Amino acid sequence: MAFKPSAAAVVRHYYKGNRHKQLRAFCYAVKFGTVARAAEALFLSASSVSLQLSALEKELGARLLERTRPRLALTREGQMLYDLARGLIEGMETLDQQFRSQRQGLDAGEVTVAAGSSTIQYLLPPLVREFRERRPEVRLQLANVTGKDGLALLRSDQADFAVGSMLDVPHDLSYEPVHWFDPMLILPPDHPLAAKSEIALADLSPYGLILPPQRLTTYRMIDLVFQQARVPYQVAIEVGGWEVIKQYVAMGLGISVVTGICIQPEDEKRLAVRNMRRFFPQRSYGVVVRKGKYLSPQARAFVDLIRPGMFARSDYYESGHSER
Question: How would you list the strands of the sheet with 256-259, edge to edge?
């Protein structure tokens, strides 16, 4: 008697054979915004893509796309599926390249790290030194970018990963903090507040602050703290770069709240430094990677260097100026 597969077995076979095609059609439709453009990219007919999308929604029992607009829009369930499927589809499409690269066992290559000026200046030097000692044949590129420019490099795969600080993490990126720095008030040594044993947030109100530009995270964080505490404050100077801010404070042009990452032992010779963790949150620094991103062996080797303790640059932080 010949074996006749059950209906359940047939469904499972159909599921395994077509799920990748359905998810690929779904991800391309989201990426390009219309079924027609997705079909062109997949070298399929628009009707084929539509059938795959409909089958996917039917099998999952959820509406994934809104089709009433000029461009397709994700539903809540569609966004969740896209977050899960995007990395899988991109990984499958680059599988051959990844396999060849790892099979060849390439030690040479290039690693591009996106980072802001403060990260490049204060955090990365010991990591770069060790990486160069371990992988002298790898070309290392440090892209000095911040904010949207850094995220754009990650999303376009022009950077392998980023190192820096993030307050708001977009859904398509992953952020792993590895070290924390306290907020520090810096003053000229002869400033009236320098003689106080305890400084309240309201004590800063009469004095002009020297802050980074408004587009940067530090400014947003400081503004949020003052607003939530309903304490007025005034900005005397907006200028980029921690070293410039420290210099201007030392000249008596204002005071500032900076991240402890930029305070070095020699700064206490020209500045009065007070910990403000009581009022302002710590800032974390870590690794930012696009979800689903394949990291080359060279890039993974650099990431492996970034671990807690690597950023404790001197006994200055170990002595309590910055606590985790």
Answer: 256-259, 183-187, 272-275
Integer Cα distance of 197 and 189 in angstroms: 14
Mean pLDDT for back-to-back runs of 10 residues, the chain (324 residues): 44 56 92 90 91 93 86 91 90 78 61 92 93 91 87 91 87 90 95 93 96 88 94 95 95 95 90 95 92 88 74 34 34
Instruction: Using CA atoms of 156, 161, 167, 169 in order, give the dihedral in degrees to the nearest 10.
Output: 50
| Total number of domains constituting the chain | 3
Look at residue 1 and tell me if it is in a domain: no
CATH of the domain at 14: 1.10.10.10
Which residues touch 243 (CB under 8 Å, ≥6 apart)?
121, 262
CATH number at residue 250: 3.40.190.10
Query: Burial level of 100, CB count in 10 A (0-12/13-18/19+)?
Result: exposed
Domain span including residue 314:
106-180+284-321
Same domain, 202 and 274: yes
What's the whole-model pTM score? 0.58
- Of 196, 20, 156, which Cα lies nearest the Cα of 93? 20
Place of tokens 């790898």: 138
